[in-house]
TrEMBL record:
GO terms for biological process: polyketide metabolic process. PANTHER family: ESTER CYCLASE (PTHR38436:SF1), POLYKETIDE CYCLASE SNOAL-LIKE DOMAIN (PTHR38436). This is Ester cyclase.
Amino acid sequence: MTTSTDADVAVASLHAMGSGTKADFRPLYTEDAVNREALAEPPEARGTGPAALFAYALWLRAAFSDLAWEIHEVVHDGELVVIHSTMSGRQTGLFVSYGPDAKVAAAFPPRGRSFAVTQTHWLRMRDGRVAEHWANRDDLGMGQQLGWTPPTPLYLGRMLLATRRERSKAAA
């Protein structure tokens, strides 16, 4: 993967989330890169560096097929790159969210629905690679499009059963 500017690397890092391989992540992230959004992610995605960011991508891909980011605007100022984008996909797998204690908080069974939500990603760059990431996302809008909120009584029951199963698996 060849990139020429910090903005190019930042955009490539978003696209890698949808389809990149573990090898694709190495040149994009510093060894100590941190994702400030990791508090709701699985334990393996809470570390630092390319491996943790790749674990984050795998977590998203397990729940969402056709995962993609449409880039609308990119602003680059000094070491900071800001990307305004739309994330889209279709939920075809179980989405598991985690609490600050890294334990399963909730599980959302797939309904096969598609979503598209705007996001703003903030990336701090160092030596031509991403060193820090945080984002502003429309999680409520995504949940509404996927039918998570407000849940129907039947879907709420499916969520409770899926959450219980995921907690049991994590405890084993």
